[in-house]
Every structure is written in structure tokens, then in C-alpha cells.
Sequence to fold (400 residues):
Amino acid sequence: MLVDLWRSVLARMLLAACSLGVAPVATAAEKPPVRIGLDAEFGVPTSTSAQAVRLGMKIAVDEINQRGGVLGGRKLMIEERDNRSVPARSLQNLRELAALPDLVAVFCGKYSPVVVQALPLIHQLKLPLLDPWAAADPITSHDFQPSYTFRLSLKDSWAMETMLSSAGQRGFKRVGMLAPNTEWGRSSLRAAENFLSRSKVTSLAATRWYNWGDESLLEQYRTLREAGSQAMILVANEREGAILVNEIAKLPEAERLPILSHWGVTGGRFHHYAGEALDKIDFSVVQTYSFIGQRNPKALAVLAAAQRLEGIAGPRMLPSPVGVAHAYDLTHILARAIDLAGSTDRTAVRDALEQVKNHAGLIRRYTQPFTPSRHDALDLGQVFMARFAADGAIEAVSTK
Fold:
């Protein structure tokens, strides 16, 4: 009887509220989530980059939701898709994600060719694409206006300037370049040539190309040596990078050129596949952030969350650390943009991303991460050279 009485009272209260034109207030649990997509290369067996991006997003989403979410109490939720690094799969995934209710943006993975091929569809769908890894310059430097692509990551231009400057500082007057026959490789070559046209720190002896899936890169390497290269700029992911390192390690010591590598190799199990061969090579790699040695509260909180969520015991065990750091900062910036937009309307969120100001991030303090004329949140100042330690951790060795 008491239960029936309370039900009757509640019904009358709701009826009275409706008669006064007042809608019942939904609890936080009843509010629909705000969705963020992630379309990345989970199905590539050697890769750890997609998992790193997801972890950075998860840590940020957990923090944001613990503080009450966005838009007055709505929780953020990640919608994940696997593109296996195949552009056609990514296009289908983007269409599926764009059709989801209250999906405000999609994060991508590390494969620049996948993202570059998706640019027309991204702008057709008016779908904000947030890039925490892929480095090809055209991802943010294109003719689509207004631009729906936002990057918090490395650019090929910065990577090439940092690697070539390092080569020059080390006394290498002529360097060879080995790159994939993809948009990433072509973007890297354009960036290298553009930098060297303005700065004579070194010169390109020759450029050689390879295709994804090649089982040997030794012939290209030998022709670069024969062209007079004293060191080599390598543009590669973990598989091809490990193939080359293992092949070079078998050569006589005098024939092993120093390698300055783009960071694709850090997006997978490169250290595992290179093994002891890496100890025989002078191998350095470009990076933008390291958790190793960090003592600030934000970095320590991210590492504690990584251990809680994934069982990762410390910064030296964190796979693909730049993916975690970039995705973490980018998710927090997106959350601020959603609140600025005041809705899940994607055009409003796109516009708001250009208005976020004074964000204290993990990697840096962002005075204004994005502006109408600049959709890259980092700059050359975050880029440095690093090396793999014996345990596989990536340690900074110098600034530019």
C-alpha cells in the first residue's frame, strides 16, 4: 500500500510539472553519452600505435567523466573501429561512425596514407578528424575549407628538419634517404628537399624507394652507400625498419651506415623484431615526448592510470609512448571544445576547437592549440632525437 501511495504521489508531481511546462530533470545516468570515434590499425599484428592512442584516450575520458563529463553531466564514450591500415576499410569505418548519434569527432591512427585518402570524405561528412600520430604534412596542409582535420602530433617537415640537422651536427655531409612508395614517403621527401633548399647543413646523396611488404631492403641500402651516403634517413614502420636493421647488422662493420629514423618504428614491436642486431647499428629516432624522468603531477597521474587500466608497470614499459601522450592531450582539448560548442553538433565542435585557449596539457601548455589558420597543436620545439635502450625503452639523447 505504501509503495502504491508513493507511486501515486510521484505521478501527480510529474503531471503537475508537465502542466506547468516544466520537463522532468534527467539524472546523469539517464543522459545519452557523447561519442568519440577511433579508427586505427588494431589489426596490424606488429603494431602498438593504435593501442597507445586508445590508452591515452581512455585515461583522458576517465578523468573527464570522473569530473562530471561534458555538456552538464554527459559521459564521454569511445567508439572503436579497426581499419587494419587499409584505406577502403577506413572509409567504411568513417561512414559508420559518422552515422552514430552524438558522435562529435574521430581520432585516427599512425598511417598517413590512410588519413590522406580519407580527406575528401572527412570534409564531405563534416566530421572533425583528430590526429594524434600520422605525420604527413597534407593531413593539415590542404585546400579543404573550412578544415576539419586537427593534429596534435609530429609533422614530416619537423621530423626531416630535426633528423637532417642532427646529421649535419654530427658531421655527415651527404645522407641517403630510404622511404616507402606512399604518400608518407613522398611527403617526407618533399619536406627534406624543402628544408635543405633553405639550410645547407647537409645534402641528399640519393633517395631510394621500397614497397610495403618487401622482404629485403638491402639492395636499396647498398645503392645509397654507393651514391656516397655517409648516413641514412629512414622513413619506415616497425616491420621494414627491423628488416633493414637485421640486414645491415650482418654486413662488415665498415659498411654499416648510421641511421636516423622517422618515428614509425616506435609505433610497433620494432625493438623485439630487431633484437640484438640493433646493438650493432648506430640508430637514432625522432620523438616528441618521453615519460621517462618526468616528475610532474600530470605525467605521474597518466602513468598511474596506465598501470591501473592496462597493468603497465612504469614509463619504460609503456609501448608507443607518444601515442599515449598525444591522444591524452587531444582528448582533453576536444572535451573543452564540446563544452564551448554547447552541443554535439559537429560543425559547432569544429569551430570551437579553434577557440580553446590556455590549456595546461601533459606535453606543453597550449596558449591556443588550434586557430583558423593553424591546425597543428605542437611545433618544432617539441621534437628531439632519441635512442632505444637495451630494454626497449625510448630515451631522449639530445635536443636538435
Q: What stands out?
A: Confidence is low (pLDDT under 50) at residues 1-26.
